[in-house]
């Protein structure tokens, strides 16, 4: 598992590499050059009413000391203009700092609502110190629950389509067994899991649908060849994009909105994903 210290070492290396023009470009241009990525989301046995509806995915916003509040608010405006049927926030809503719960409450007060639902899961940064401060996570959830419904190893049905969401992998609270309890593998569902490494865990049962993830930031810096050097995941295939997994699961890893620790994105623009549902 990638420790905070190792992540800082990697981040420092990348920062040192990028002290030339690349860093200036990444900091000044691409860091806030948000892309809207529109993609189909084919779901087996999708109810008629859901065909053509949109799930807008916001991930890794990282409200806190590293990401400018006005950029986050502009991103929320862009999401509002998309008028999502469901808005999902797939973790790392925050970066830890003194007073982050109050800061997050001020910013997320401006989060637009999905027409049918606004759902969220926590990412490792939302658990505070060493990713394992459950009191911190509980305080954050309590502060933001008037804006979004958090799924913490549980599922919820929205107009005939089930959404499930897990606790974060690094918090050591993630339980697929608890999350998927009572879910019929043949009924339509969409999963929210912050860290894409969780797709390789045992315990998925017969689930064959989509899992929407974030966590990687796409690596923040993508070299022309080879994987990004700064990837906080074990399975380095899952930097960003779409993956077919053994057992029929499908994974989408969104590079996300914000950044952590190093204010840099090179060849890896921030993204909001707009998933349009269709029948598989
Ligand atoms: Fe993140």
Explain this structure to me?
The protein has 280 residues and is an alpha/beta fold. It has one domain: 4-Layer Sandwich (Purple Acid Phosphatase, chain A, domain 2). It contains 6 helices and 12 strands. The strands form 2 sheets. Strands 1-12-2-3-4-5 form a 6-stranded mixed beta sheet, with no helix packed on it. It has a 6-stranded mixed beta sheet with strand order 6-7-8-9-11-10. Helix 4 packs parallel to helix 5. The longest helix has 14 residues. 47% of the residues are buried. The structure holds fe (ii) ion (FE2).
Bound small-molecule species: fe (ii) ion
**Which secondary-structure class do the elements indicate?**
alpha/beta
N-to-C SSE string, H for helix and E for strand: HHEEHEHEHEEEHEEEEE
Radius of gyration: 18 Å
| Unreliable sequence segments | 1-20
Give the beta-strand count: 12
Largest sheet: 6 strands, mixed
Number of helices: 6
The fraction of residues assigned to DSSP E strands is 15-25%
- CATH class call: Alpha Beta
Count of all domains: 1
Integer average pLDDT:
90
Q: What is the first-to-last residue Cα distance?
A: 35 Å
């Amino acid at each position: 598992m990638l420790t905070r210290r190792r992540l800082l070492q990697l981040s420092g290396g990348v920062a040192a590499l990028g002290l030339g023009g690349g860093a200036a470009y990444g900091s000044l241009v691409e860091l806030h050059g948000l892309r809207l990525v529109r993609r189909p989301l084919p779901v087996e046995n999708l109810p008629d009413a859901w065909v053509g509806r949109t799930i807008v995915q916001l991930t890794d916003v990282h409200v806190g000391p590293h990401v400018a509040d006005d950029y986050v608010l502009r991103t929320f405006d862009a999401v509002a203009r998309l008028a999502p049927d469901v808005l999902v926030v797939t973790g790392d809503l925050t970066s830890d700092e003194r007073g982050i719960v109050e800061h997050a409450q001020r910013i997320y007060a401006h989060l637009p609502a999905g027409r049918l639902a606004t759902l969220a899961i926590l990412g490792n940064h939302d658990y505070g110190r060493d990713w394992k401060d459950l009191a911190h996570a509980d305080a954050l959830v309590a502060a933001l629950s008037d804006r979004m419904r958090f799924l913490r190893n549980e599922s919820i049905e929205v107009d005939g389509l089930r959404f499930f969401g897990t606790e974060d992998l690094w918090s050591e609270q993630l339980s697929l067994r608890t999350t998927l309890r009572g879910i019929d593998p043949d009924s339509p569902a969409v999963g929210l899991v912050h860290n894409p490494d969780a797709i390789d865990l045992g315990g998925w049962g017969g689930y064959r649908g989509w899992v929407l993830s974030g966590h990687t930031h796409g690596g923040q810096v993508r070299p022309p060849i080879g994987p990004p050097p700064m990837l906080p995941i074990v399975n380095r295939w899952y930097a960003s994009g779409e993956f077919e997994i053994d057992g029929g699961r499908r994974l989408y890893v969104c590079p996300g909105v914000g950044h952590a620790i190093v204010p840099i994105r090179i060849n890896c623009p921030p993204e909001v994903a707009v998933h349009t549902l269709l029948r598989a």
